[in-house]
Specification:
Blueprint: E1 3-14, H1 21-36, E2 46-49, H2 59-63, E3 70-72, H3 79-92, E4 98-106, H4 123-127, H5 133-148, H6 152-167, H7 180-184, E5 188-190, E6 193-194, E7 203-212, E8 224-233, H8 254-266, E9 275-277, H9 283-292, H10 301-306, H11 323-327, H12 331-347, E10 361-368, E11 372-379
Parallel strand pairs: 2-3, 2-4, 9-10
Antiparallel strand pairs: 1-7, 1-8, 4-7, 5-6, 8-11, 10-11
Helix pairs in contact: 3-12, 6-9
Length: 380
């Protein structure tokens, strides 16, 4: 049985004083219901997540107390992707015909302040500064740049593209274009990553309406079909955020495992994908995830990015909405934001951000601590 996305909704990302994260999620939910031409009472289930704005199931207080089952999902930055996979499996199993996925958040200003004890780590891990993820991501990209010949210019170009795409995205937080030089010369946070190479914790909400594929055209003339939805966690030996040590023998990380499984489930390969959304917590993450998701060999990113091939008009259009760098990262919503943008692209409704050539297949990837990846492949 196919599963289709028939309604999409979003609350603009960034900072919205006077509106709670829950209210932003409800805003997105009402948009998605309207887009699908259905009402809240028609929903048979819900899955959702929020890290800092309360329980996602509290959406029923805003939308209506109908008695429907609504399940909270928490999986770090992969919360939205994990909620989507949960809904996909609920419909795929035959248990439900139609339901909602929602994610929202409203984070405090500044860096995420994770507690090591909640991840089974000792207080010492935080005392060394490693719970501040900028440190880990900097160490990881330093090693990657050394291994594969990635330049600091390429790091800056990834962010330059993100801000350029964000200018044309009315739902992005950062909507001002920045040059490669401005990005490279901005405040150094964790070498080699500067201030404008990082995303920021923010606010926003996204909701999707999913249904059985054979009913999709009851709700929309442009259904988007989920050809695969896969999540994987880390294996021993993978090099992941919040890992207290590194094994002597390194193994493939969860992104590689999830990507391979998603392509196998969908029966397609990386060369078939027309538009791509990758987790870009910072510039280095997008670079590494290009290879980990199979879109190039390690080291090929240098030439591809320098040649502009990851831009909207390139052969590998990546993060067409500006990604996390331009949009910010409200944890509960960020994975669903990727799917929202991909649905727009596959519908042909992305406006000036539209990838040329009528894209047919889209790919989303989200990565979360302490080593979880979720991947979807969508077909228009």
């Amino acid at each position: 049985m196919d599963v289709a996305i028939v309604g999409i909704g979003i609350h603009p990302f960034g900072r919205t004083p006077g509106r709670s994260g829950l209210q932003q999620g409800a805003y997105a939910a009402r948009q998605a219901l309207k887009d699908a031409g259905v009402e809240w009472k028609d929903m048979q289930f819900g899955f959702g997540g929020s890290a800092s704005a309360g329980s996602a199931d509290a959406l029923v207080n805003e939308l209506g107390l109908t008695g429907m089952p609504f399940m909270n999902v928490a999986n770090g930055c992969a919360t939205g992707g994990s909620a989507l996979i949960s809904a996909y499996n609920a419909i795929k199993s035959g248990a439900y015909d139609i339901g909602m996925v929602a994610g929202f958040d409203k984070h405090d200003r500044g860096a995420f302040n994770a507690d090591p004890t909640q991840l089974g780590l000792g207080a010492w891990y935080g005392e060394t500064g490693l719970m501040l993820t900028t440190q880990f991501f900097a160490m990881k990209i330093q090693r990657y740049m050394h291994r594969y010949g990635i330049s600091t210019s390429t790091l800056a170009k990834v962010a330059e593209k993100a801000y350029r795409n964000g200018v044309d995205n009315p739902n992005a937080w950062r909507r001002e274009a920045l040059s490669e030089a401005e990005i490279a010369n901005s405040l150094m946070i964790s070498n080699p990553l500067t201030k404008f190479m990082f995303c920021s914790p923010g606010e926003g909400g996204v909701a999707l309406i999913l249904c059985r594929g054979d009913r999709a055209r009851e709700f929309t003339s442009k259904p988007i079909y989920l050809k695969s939805a896969v999540m994987r966690s880390r294996r021993y030996g993978s090099f992941e955020v919040f890992a207290p040590s590194q094994a002597l023998e390194e193994v493939a990380g969860p992104t590689i495992d999830a990507s391979r499984a998603a392509f196998e489930m969908a029966g397609v390969g990386p060369r078939d994908i027309d538009v791509i959304q990758l987790q870009d917590t910072e510039s280095g993450a997008e670079i590494m995830h290009m290879a980990e998701n199979g879109f190039c060999e390690h080291g090929e990113q240098e030439q591809l990015i320098q040649a502009g091939e990851t831009g909207i008009g390139g052969k590998l259009p990546i993060n067409t909405d500006g990604g996390c760098i331009a949009s910010g990262e409200p944890i509960g919503a960020t994975g669903l934001r990727q799917v929202y943008e991909t649905c727009l692209q596959l519908r042909g409704d992305a406006g000036v951000r539209q990838v040329p050539g009528k894209p047919r297949l889209g790919y989303t990837h989200v990565y979360g601590a302490p080593g979880v990846s979720a991947v979807t492949i969508l077909q228009g």
